[in-house]
Amino acid sequence: MNVRSLKLAGAAAGLLFLVGGAPNVYAQTEVLTNNEGNNWARNQTVTSTFRFTQSMILNSIGFVTTISEYPNSVPTSLSYTLKGGGPVFVSVNSLSSMENGLQWYTLATPVTMNVNDVVTVSSLGELFPSTYDPEYDETFPAYNATFFTGFKSISSSVTVSVNHDVQPHNGYAVFSNGNLRVSNPGSNVAPEPGSIALLLTGGGALAGIALRRRRNAA
């Protein structure tokens, strides 16, 4: 078999391997949408609770780590729990860059959440040191400032109920220190049967060409 025949056969085999071995791709949806308006809690760990009302795939967990007034703030503690398990603490360095007011932690392996499974997202904000105010001749004690934001709505395509420490008001659906990215188990994108058949036909044709050339050269 000459070099050209080897290349053709190799390309066909490679394409077939990609079709057979490619992972499922999921269309992701953010549970909370239209976030705007920031606020903060003093010396309080804020926890958001997400309860699933049908099976979904959990892909990423978002955290409100800073707000525009304190762009360089670094939280003291970030954590989440899955299905009633113990807290998993997350380093700020493991989060994505800021995306629309949140930083995201992508799970190494997506988790299937079933009906009534719960995810909690907890955060304790940066510790600001005590300060002396000469105007009032008073020293103010150190405090933690935990940030959260208001979300106008919950995605209509996601069957997840949300309960938060901070109650909604002024037109917001919820205030939250976090968010989730989920996908429907039925939304995985697989190659269409026609595409697979076409690829198999093409691969077979390439292999047949290589075989005939080898016989003719013998």
Notes on the protein architecture:
The chain has 218 residues and is of the alpha+beta class. The protein is 20% helix and 41% strand. It has two helices and 15 strands. The strands form four sheets. Strands 6-5-8-3-13 form a five-stranded antiparallel β-sheet, with no helix packed on it. A four-stranded antiparallel β-sheet has the order 1-15-4-7, with no helix packed on it. A hairpin with a 5-residue loop joins β5 and β6. The chain is elongated, with a radius of gyration of 26 Å.
Write the SSE topology.
Blueprint: H1 3-21, E1 29-30, E2 32-42, E3 46-52, E4 56-63, E5 77-82, E6 88-89, E7 103-113, E8 118-124, E9 126-128, E10 131-133, E11 138-140, E12 143-154, E13 160-164, E14 174-176, E15 178-183, H2 193-217
Antiparallel strand pairs: 1-15, 2-12, 3-8, 3-13, 4-7, 4-15, 5-6, 5-8, 9-12, 10-11, 12-14
- Tally the helices: 2
Kindly state the percentage of residues in helix. 10-25%
Radius of gyration: 26 Å
Query: What fraction strand?
Result: 35-45%
| Main sheet summary | 5 strands, antiparallel
What is the H-and-E element order? HEEEEEEEEEEEEEEEH
List low-pLDDT spans.
3-24, 188-207
Shape: elongated
Describe the strand arrangement of the main beta sheet, using strand numbers: 6-5-8-3-13
Report the average pLDDT across residues.
78
Number of strands: 15
Distance between the termini: 9 Å
Secondary structure category: alpha+beta
Instruction: Compute the number of structural domains.
Output: 1
